[in-house]
């Protein structure tokens, strides 16, 4: 069950991208969701700093 402050989404990735996501998440000790969240937040910060 997803908590009230989270939203479940579905994405479609190529097998290669999905495999890379799995590999990177495992290497970093993160879930795939946590890794994607980290990347989005980092990108958002970088974008805001460029403004």
From TrEMBL:
GO terms for biological process: regulation of DNA-templated transcription. It holds the Pfam family RHH_1. This is Ribbon-helix-helix CopG family protein. The lineage of its organism: Bacteria, Bacillati, Bacillota, Bacilli, Lactobacillales. It comes from the Bacteria. InterPro entries: Arc_rbn_hlx_hlx, CopG, Ribbon_hlx_hlx. Residues 7-36 form the Ribbon-helix-helix protein CopG domain.
